[in-house]
Amino acid sequence: MKKMSKILCMLLSVAMLLSLAACGSSANTAAKGEANLAAAYDKYLSGFSTNGTNGTLTVALSPDFAPMEFYDVAKSGDAAIVGFDVLLANYLAQELDMNLALKPMSFDACQAAVQTGNVDIAISGFSWTYERSQNYELSDWYVAGDNETEQSIICLKENEGKFTKPEDFVGAKIGYQGASLQQVLVEETFGEMDVDISNVFSDLGTAVEALKAKQIDFLAVAHGNGESIIASANDSIAFTGFDFEVDEIYKNNVCLLQKGNTELLEKVNAALAKALENDYYSGWYDACKVYAGVSTLDELGFDDEGNKITE
Amino acid sequence: MLDIKNIYKNFGDLHVLKGVSTHVEKGEVIVIIGVSGSGKSTLLRCMNLLEEPTFGEVWMEGKLMTPPDPYLHFDVIRASKTYQKLVESGLSDDEAIHKIKDEDLLKEKHPKTEGPAYAALLKKIYDENGIDINLGRQKMGMVFQNFNLFNNKTVLENITLAPIKIGKQRLKDAKKRGETPDKTPDDVVREANEKAMKLLTRIGLQDKANVYPSTLSGGQKQRVAIVRALAMEPDVMLFDEPTSALDPEMVGEVLDLIRDLVKDGMTSVIVTHEMGFAKEVADRVIFMHDGVIAEEGTPDEVFNHPKNPRCKEFLSKVLY
Amino acid sequence: MTFLTNVANILAKYWQVFLIQGIGYTLLLSVIAVAGGAFFGSLLALAKRSKLKILKALAAILVEIVRGTPVLLQLYIGVFVFPMIIPKLSSLPYIYSVSIVLIINSSAYVSEIIRSGIEAVDVGQMEAARSLGLTHTTAMLSIILPQAVKNILPALGNEFIMVVKETSLASTFFVGELMTAYLKVKGYTYLTMECLAIVGVLYFALTYILSKILKAFERRMKAHA
Which pTM was predicted? Predict the structure, then answer.
């Protein structure tokens, strides 16, 4: 019995050590030359003051969606959650004179969290949809770079640039993420045509794999996501050359608030209006594109310290 | 010493015992025989309340072990509402009582439905005569067909567990009552161990004191089981087919031990198929059939001059 | 070949997320769930054997509901509904609610493990103990439970391995265990298959090693008896 408990103790301590290391660790795996990917983003982030006096703003988001929200594993704790929506969240907290608490959870859970009042607001790349507007308070639009403005179709490299009109897609299989803006666009554009649009995926990653495996011929994505995907795909995926015509109403992202929470809604909209007026969004989005490895600081007009170069 | 009054035992719809009465005097050796399903093991197990009789009472040394059975107390029946109603409707005392007993009219002996007088009488009977079931069992030792030695205790611990636990509890209870105890808990342990070693030596297994039962043979296990029961110094020993699970070559050593106990005067009730042994040690033989005692008498009477046809049939198959 | 190169690159860059954080949190959650589950499971098992009818009924209902609903559903309830009842939870990180749910879930299964462990002990042991005049409680503590433990421990070990896999559901709330690591890295690299492969291999390695350790324990216990 003694030997057994000794082994038990050893195992428990190993498990505990590992978890302690986990809690305190910061994976410092940034290689040389990559350290500056975060420069512009960090610059913007440090510009926000979120030591508010008005309580805490709890924000739900799903950090598996570069460049809007994702994890930088080189950082630890809440600071590891980064992306456009995170900058927006910080900005809103500042404008509302509140502290900020980020609550990461799956995309579905974000909506449930807002619905039950578990969080104040969900900022996770949500587009405007009719159903959402019925069940939640949707904020005014915020512009997430060209992420939502341009909606495109990607394909395997061999088909690059060859499909530019809707008719080109007759007889093909197009995939998209379920309950997304892309679904609405695909159904609107190809619904009446002889195109197989039954290929729904629960998340973008799975859809990309299906494209690689030729289970679908084409994948409808937001242009920004498409750029991320192509950047990681080692030249095997490319844009078809087809872009959806996007109604103004679909072009941008919204924040979700609990139905009836008009007080917070007004404050949020006021802050968003200010951001729109002063054109904060494009700078933020560019910084995030760099961070997500889609572009370089240079390409998007930042210097090495992350300051935006204004002509 | 041991009084069995009109025991009925039902398992759901299965009626195993259908009115069995007997009693065991001090020093008597009773052997119970019969076919499987005749109720002999059930009867034995009712004696120390391992099975709770559906009706009937078990009295041990003048103390009531089961709850009082109203059907056995006429004054209780007379106090019941059902009786009142029957008498009012014109039945005589005798008729009413018989009707109640035959038709089991006292609704499951529920005190509340039969009135406060009834309940009070039942309580009085129990208060005056009742004994805590554990105390009663401490005076009765039981030996099982499958030995049932405690697998997680050594042979010595098997024997000393009950004496030590119960001995220490007695000391605690005495303290609670304000009496000064005549020994310490350590004394209890010491005495239990000494007695256990004596018993083990008696059966020649003193070397096995610190081994676990799984290493013993069947015969050794059963002899340890018998000695474990003896350690509590019971007034009566109950044996439930003690040799039925043993290989033939080990039956002898167990029967020898039982024979010794009986010679020393231990009151015993033995359920067995060993007819030769029964003839040898029994003061009285009970033949059970279909839940009742079909034949009862001295070994000579039952084995050599059976009256009951079922008994004759059984013996002709069993003795050869 | 690009698949393997990608895997190698990902491991080189993100090994800490998978191996330290991922496995660390997975083990932490599992240990918390099963240790807590063992404790509360014992209480539940006691409650189910109690003479108080209402306690028995409540315990039975809890066990049935917990065993009859998906763990994911329970996690949602834990994270979104519990803070309404226990306000302190809203200010704590989600890992607390998740741990509570996992403990409750494990208790239900453990109480059944304990129950069957006890019932597997031969009924003759209790009969012999009662025949000697020992009380039910003494018999349980001295004879039955020690033997039941020998039945319970292997089943408990199996429960632990099941829980290790169940912790993957906590990734819904980005708690940090192995599946969360998958989400984090996949969210940045969009290399789903590669990340899945890494995480799959790690889960398998973890459960395989744990079952080997479990078997070694079982052998030790049998030898000791």
Answer: 0.76
3-state secondary structure A169-234: HCCCEEEEECCCHHHHHHHHHHCCCCCEEEEEECCHHHHHHHHHCCCCCEEEEEHHHHHHHHHHCC
Q: Are strands A81-82 and A70-71 parallel, antiparallel or unpaired?
A: antiparallel
Residue B310 CA: distances (Å) to CA of A37, B279, B302? 100, 19, 12
pLDDT in tens, C34-61: 999 999 999 999 898 888 889 999 999 9
Q: Does B161 touch chain C (CB under 8 A)?
A: yes
Put simply, the answer to whether C94 touches A73 (Cβ < 8 Å) is no
Angle, helix C192-224 to helix C2-15, in steps of 10 degrees? 70
Alpha-carbon span B117 to B111, nearest angstrom: 9
Instruction: Write b or e for each residue in C107-135: b if 16 or more Cβ atoms lie within 10 A of its Cβ, otherwise e.
Output: bbbbbbbbbebbeebeeebbbbbbbbbbb
The pair phi, psi for residue B152, each rounded to 5°, is -95, 10
CB contact under 8 A, B144 and C130: no
CB contact under 8 A, C14 and A1: no
DSSP single-letter state for residue B209:
T
Burial of B130 (C-beta count, 10 Å sphere; 0-12/13-18/19+): middle
Which of B30, B57, B197 lies closest to B130, judged by CA? B57
For residue range B54-103, what is the model confidence (pLDDT) as tens digits?
A: 888 899 888 888 888 878 887 777 777 777 777 788 777 777 777 777 77
Residue A25's pLDDT band (boundaries 50, 70, 90)? very low
Q: Do chains A and B touch (3 or more CB pairs under 8 A)?
A: no
d(CA B238, CA B270): 6
* Chain A: closest CA distance from residue C24 (Å): 4
Q: Does residue A28 surpass a pLDDT of 60? A: no
Which candidate from A22, A29, A209 shows the least CB-CB separation from C25? A22
In chain A, whose CA is at the least distance from the CA of C11?
A29
Cβ–Cβ gap B144/C129 under 8 Å:
no
- Min Cα separation C16/chain A (Å): 6
Q: pLDDT tens-digit profile of B260-273?
A: 999 999 999 999 98
- Which ranges constitute the DSSP H helices of B91-154? 93-103, 116-129, 133-138
Q: Which fold has domain A151-245?
A: D-Maltodextrin-Binding Protein; domain 2 (3.40.190)
Range(s) within chain A of domains with CATH label 3.40.190.10: 35-146+251-310, 151-245
Measured in residues, chain A has a length of 311
Q: Which CATH superfamily is domain A35-146+251-310 in?
A: Periplasmic binding protein-like II (3.40.190.10)
Both tokens of A120, joined, read 């104040």
**DSSP string of B210-230?**
TS-GGGS-HHHHHHHHHHHHH
Q: Which residues of chain B does C125 touch, with a Cβ-Cβ cutoff of 8 Å?
A: 148, 150-151
Where does the pLDDT of residue A35 fall: very low under 50, low under 70, confident under 90, or very high at 90 and above? low
- CATH class of the domain whose range is C11-224: mainly alpha
Buried b (16+ CB within 10 A) or exposed e, B267-285: bbbbbbebbebbbebbbbb
Indicate the residue of B137, B150, B152 with minimum beta-carbon distance to C133: B137
Domain ranges of chain C: 11-224
Inter-chain residue contact C173 with A105, CB threshold 8 Å: yes
**Separation of alpha carbons B303 and B275, rounded Å:** 9
Instruction: Classify each residue of A119-138 as buried b or exposed e, where b means 16 or more C-beta atoms within 10 Å of its C-beta.
Output: bbbbbbbbbbbeebeeebbb
